[in-house]
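[09:14] KT: can someone run the structure on this one? pasting the chain below
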Amino acid sequence: MDDALTVLRREFESAEAGFLLGLRGEGLVWDRAAFSRLEQTMRTACEQYEGREDLPRWMAEGFYEVSHFVAEWTSHPNFPRPEPVQYYQDCLARLRDLADWFFRGWHAYQEPRVWRDL
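[09:31] RB: done, C-alpha cells below
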C-alpha cells in the first residue's frame, strides 16, 4: 500500500509523467496508460480506506479535485479528448464513482451497509 500511496500523492501533486500533468501541461494529452495507473491507484486507496473515519487530508483533497476538475480541464472544445466518446465519458464517470467510494466508504455498485443491515 505504501507504494500505491506514493504514486497517488505524486499524481495528486501533478508530478512529472502523471496523468494530471499531461492534461494541464503544455501537451494537453489524455494518456490512456497514465489514466489506468491513476484509476488503479485510486481503487487501491478506496479498498484500503473503505469504512475508515480517518481519511488523510491530502488524499481527500486529491480525490475531490480529480473527480471534479478532470471534466473541467478537458471540457474546452480544443482539448483533444480520446476516442471513442464513450470511453472518455466512462472515464469521467469512473473518477466520480471512485471519489464517491472513497468518501462514503462503499462503492456505487454495492449495497450500502446501512440499507443492507436493516
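[09:33] KT: thanks! The CA atoms of residues 19 and 35 lie 6 Å apart.
[09:34] RB: yep, looked fine to me
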